[in-house]
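hiii so my PI (J.) wants the whole complex modelled not just the main chain, which honestly fair. so below is everything: two entries, each one labled with what it is. i double checked the lines twice but i was tired so who knows lol
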Amino acid sequence: MKKGIREKIAEMTEIPKDFMMNMPRVTILGNREICVDNYKGLLEYSQEVIRLATTNKIIVIRGEELLITRIVEEAVFIGGNISLVEFVSKNRRNEQI
Amino acid sequence: MFFNKLFHFVKGYVIINVSGLNIERFLYMCAKRSIGIFNIGKRIDKGVNICINLSDFKKIRPVVYKSKVRICILKKCGLPFFINKAKKRRALIVGMLVLSVLCFVSSEFIWSIEVNSEDETVTKELLEAIDIAGVKIGAYKPMLPDGEKIKSIIMNNTDNIVWAWVYIKGTKACVNFKEGIPAPDVVDWSVPCDIVAMRDGIIKEIVEKNGEARVEVGDTVQKGELLIAGTLSMPDSTYKTVHSIGDIYARVWHEKSGEYKLHINNDIKTGKKKDFITLKLFSKCFDFFVSENVDFKEYSIDERLSELKLGKDNFLGVGFYRKTYNEIEKEKVKISLEETLRIAQNDLEMRISKELMPGSVLSDKKIVYEQIDDETIKVTMTMEFIEQIGKKVPFNL
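here's the output for the full assembly
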């Protein structure tokens, strides 16, 4: 995977990448809670799937009884029975974690 | 979580239903514009239920237009709405004010007095003494005399109290006191006396300090028999009287018997009960019944006192006393012979212990039983003690 100039600078200067590259920071607590910082939009909200827009990817969260517990400008907190977190590129290439 | 809820309650919030095609956009725009939304519900056909802070509610108008959703207010919650409603109900506000004033005023009086004593006569004596000092039910706390004055009044009006202090805890007055140690008996040597036996027994030991022993170790004595004589014979055929002192220890047998059943009666509640409620208003009692008539043949009584209190000790002068009569039925439960003997032993030991002199030492005990019928046994218990049986009896010349 090719590294961009911002990533290279971040690595060289040891500045946090989420700050430098405007990337989302995803924190998962077991399979019960997930917190996405630095998101750019809410694309879909249902009990089975929640899609969040970030700078260059779309984060797809799948599970059962998903619920947005809190939503603020910088972060969104999602609770429920999470089974899958996907990073979908805008050109539809999937990277599963 | 609790503080979060409390915060939202104090600030006030509105539960709204958001429906339409762009709910996600509405949510994101709310977040972007720092509109406080929380408790976002599940997405169902009718849309999403969300809670929105009261202060931010007016800010959602442009968001609603932009995102083309429809909103509907479901519920208004929180303190501002409650106050708004309460403003229209003046009687409620007046009632609350009166209640709080009553609570405040009634907490300025003494509503209960506690004396930590098991002796009823001491309790009565103390209560009378503090009553003279002005500490009584219904007394106004700021008007009470100071602690030192109460203490001196208590000590002047009681016999055996060497120290006392009244602590005011809320609306309760707690009386702490210390009883004096009684002075030892002074032996009046000028009064001549004999020492006689208080009960039958066999002499085991004689400690003769003054007077002349008239019995020997191993002698059998009966109640009232002379043990140490206060009259001493002199060689010149005269006599001299003294105050006899001495301890006579003897083996004494105590025997008790009783009939015991080979079953016990268990009480079973039938479920029928009758309540009698009394309102305790300050120091007065008001019954909520005419007479305490109970038709039950056998019953047990439960008593419960509920008092309106602020904290632990601030009794506000209002309480309910509930007396419940529960109908019971006796059920016979068979028990083993050993169990019956154990019960009998406890009972007989208790009965014998009431007859003993202080300082008695148990040396032997024996328990026998005989069957009277299928359900009854007769148990006899014999206990041997070493007791001091001497008693001073003054005599006149």
